[in-house]
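Example for tutorial group B:
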């Protein structure tokens, strides 16, 4: 079978692109942040350009600048409210973690002395009781390590990102040009396909764009809502680190299914470090918050933007975490949603025809 030179060239370009992508890992954050901001701001820019002021439509560049002003206002407001108390609480938390772990160990010993040992001595379910306690001890220990590592990774990722002044300059500039030449970029991508495939390619690209835009906008709103409710709840319970725990809860929302559980564990541990009663109150609060999210907030905010089965979501999270850690888990859902659209058009529809 004869292979055309065009096909070979395209294959080389694709392989080279992915090689550069794997090697140049430092460019991930600014590019992803720019693309993400573009998808969030594009609907705003699109609506603004359709508004008439004195019978004149708002131009593309003024619309982009207005959208930027809107984004900067929100970001500045959030940073001014969060940064100082968040840094203070993180410093305080890291100092107190060893003492908290000692308190948790003491609590486990208390459970062992007052619950497990009496059951073992009575001879009823002796073997099962010992196994349950060991499993409980391991689960709490591993959950604490995973949750605090997640907090540490997110914090270090955020602060290292904020410390890179060049990248902070690149993001708005790149976002501006992506918004300005949005249609040009889309048309260029479509032109890469053959004339026969361009109509289908256009349909897929716009469908992917809609999914990503809806997902990112919904995810942003979800993080804000959950973060706010979490802060109010933790502050009212006087848990000691409401900003840290609320920020972790908000950020963990980006990791579906697993995220809310991972963010609940350190909150419960910090509650238990104060008292068993507070730990139980925090656990009940986290449980009801998750139910509120799953049955009320999530359907209204996110709708069916990704349309993926929970099993698919969990597998994609595991794969993303294996390759890129926390960043991979954050990217897993949108990437899987895009692959799902691609497969729907090029695999399932082809089989039907």
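The residue assignment follows.
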């Amino acid at each position: 079978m004869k292979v055309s030179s065009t096909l070979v060239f395209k294959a080389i370009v694709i392989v080279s692109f992915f090689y550069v992508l794997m090697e140049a890992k430092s460019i991930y954050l600014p590019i992803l942040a720019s693309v993400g901001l573009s998808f969030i701001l594009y609907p705003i820019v699109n609506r603004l350009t359709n508004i008439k002021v004195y019978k004149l439509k708002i131009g593309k560049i003024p619309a982009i600048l207005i959208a930027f002003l809107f984004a900067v206002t929100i970001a500045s407001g959030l940073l001014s409210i969060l940064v100082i108390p968040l840094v203070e609480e993180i410093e305080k938390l890291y100092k107190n973690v060893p003492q908290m772990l000692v308190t948790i160990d003491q609590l486990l010993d208390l459970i062992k002395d007052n619950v497990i040992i009496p059951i073992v001595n009575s001879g009823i379910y002796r073997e099962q009781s010992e196994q349950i306690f060991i499993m409980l001890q391991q689960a709490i220990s591993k959950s604490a390590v995973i949750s605090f590592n997640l907090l540490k990774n997110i914090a270090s990722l955020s602060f290292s990102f904020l410390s890179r002044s060049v990248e902070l300059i690149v993001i708005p500039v790149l976002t501006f040009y992506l918004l300005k030449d949005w249609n040009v970029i889309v048309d260029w991508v479509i032109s890469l396909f053959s004339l026969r495939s361009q109509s289908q390619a256009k349909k897929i690209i716009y469908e992917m764009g809609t999914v990503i835009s809806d997902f990112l906008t919904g995810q942003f709103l979800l993080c804000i809502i959950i973060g706010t409710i979490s802060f109010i709840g933790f502050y009212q319970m006087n848990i000691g680190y409401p900003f840290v725990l609320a920020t972790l809860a908000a950020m963990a929302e980006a990791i579906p299914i697993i995220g809310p559980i991972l963010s609940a564990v350190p909150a419960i541990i910090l509650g238990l470090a104060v008292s068993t009663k507070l730990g139980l109150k925090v656990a009940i609060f986290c449980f009801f918050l998750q139910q509120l999210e799953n049955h009320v907030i999530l359907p209204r905010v996110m709708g069916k933007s990704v349309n993926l089965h929970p099993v698919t979501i969990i597998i994609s999270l595991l794969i993303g975490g294996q390759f890129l850690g926390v960043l991979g888990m954050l990217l897993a859902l949108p990437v899987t949603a895009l692959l799902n659209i691609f497969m729907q058009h090029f695999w399932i529809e082809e089989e039907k025809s």
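The chain has two domains: 5-305, 306-353. Compare this with the pattern of hydrophobic and polar residues in the output above.
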